[in-house]
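Researcher: Structure for this, please.
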Amino acid sequence: MMDIHQIIKKLPHRYPFLLVDRVIEFEKDVRIKALKNVTINEPFFNGHFPNRPVMPGVLMLEALAQASALLSFSSEGEESDGSRLYYFAGIDGARFKRVVEPGDQLVLESTITRKKAGIYKYSTRATVDGELAVEAELMCTVRAVAA
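Model: Predicted structure, token format:
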């Protein structure tokens, strides 16, 4: 549904912080399913942890937030021109259920549960091989960027 070139047009993030590789399902104003391929070349693996590389939980949440922002930007038909950004406003109920390692593919899923006055609430989850890795309720707000 959306390759890396289209994702770059929608999100302001760039290497090494762009954490969504492909969108495989999209339902406007409802849900998105995206992929993050986890490789040993990720810069955070040098220190987390050198003898047992594990993807940091905070980056799994960031990947879910980026997928959620893609859902909202794409639902509104927007591309990232730098005039508006989605910022984290809250994380509730985050639970980590599985370690994510190099070679894993995170399947990122986000569903809009509420949208009001520029604040979005999403129900999110990420799985590896069908096994739950992380789940959380995320809140983001969209704001105009001052020139």
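Researcher: Any notable elements?
Model: The chain has one domain: 4-144. The chain is about 20% helix and 40% strand.
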